[in-house]
Amino acid sequence: MLYATLKTLHVLAIIVWIGGMVFAHFFLRPAVAQLEAAARVRLMHDVLGRFFQAVLVAALLTLASGIWMLGRVAKQVVQSGGSFEMPLAWTVMAVLGTLMVAIFMHIRFALYKRLSKAVAAADFTAGGAALAQIRTWVLVNLALGVVVLLATLMHGAY
Ligand code: HEM
Questions:
Q1: Which of 2, 152, 154 to mutate to test the pocket of ligand 1 (most atoms within 8 A of CB)?
Q2: pTM of the model
Q3: Cα 8 from Cα 137, distance rounded (Å)
Q4: Which of 58, 61, 70, 76 is most buried by its number of CB atoms within 10 A?
Q5: Which residue's C-alpha comes closest to atom 3 of ligand 1?
């Protein structure tokens, strides 16, 4: 029951995180590109501020639930006298998942901060540059997320 709850939380958090990146990149960004710089940078700053609050929770939940599940499985295997060998798909998930969390922290606490400063100073050129960097790293995280999903869900398929 605990394991199933952890796994459900894990997947729900990932749906919010990856779904939000898809929406921001493929649907929101092209639409706001038509606005003039000040309005575009202000709107994106507001939307991303709200989204990143949710991602902060989702990323920490993903990490915590993932590590907790690993710990439970390892403990059970060891307690029943076996030795725990992590499946390759889980290793890929843990390594790339942790990398995704680190990249998100960079987006939220370095790049988004730069964007906030630019908006406060009404410097929309600097704001646009910060947004472009955020976009690049969000794309990297989206690609990593898709690789993790493929490794996890397609593993063993034939
Ligand atoms: C941050 C480090 C992460 C760790 C330590 C971790 C660990 C785990 C573990 C132990 C499971 C349980 C697998 C099972 O019972 O079959 C799991 C399930 C899952 N994880 Fe992760 N995970 C992490 C990040 C991610 C990320 C970033 C994604 C997607 C982008 C992801 C997608 C999934 C999915 C879809 C499942 C369900 C798989 C299934 O039921 O077949 N995980 N994770």
A1: 152
A2: 0.93
A3: 27
A4: 58
A5: 94
Closest Cα to atom 24 of ligand 1: 97
**Ligand 1 atom closest to Cα of residue 98:** 1
Distance of alpha carbon 63 from alpha carbon 10, whole angstroms: 8
DSSP run (H or E) holding 40:
helix 37-79
By most ligand atoms within 8 Å of CB, the mutation choice from 11, 12, 93, 101 for ligand 1 is 93
The ranges assigned to domains in the chain are 2-153
**7: DSSP letter:** H
Q: Are 95 and 107 in contact (CB under 8 A)?
A: no
- Tens of pLDDT, residues 61-114: 999 999 999 999 999 999 999 999 999 999 999 999 999 999 999 999 999 999
Going by alpha carbons, the residue nearest to atom 8 of ligand 1 is 66
**42-60 pLDDT, tens digit each:** 999 999 999 999 999 999 9
Q: What's the CA angle centered on 143, arms 149 and 127, to 5 degrees? A: 140
- At 69, list the tokens: 């599940």
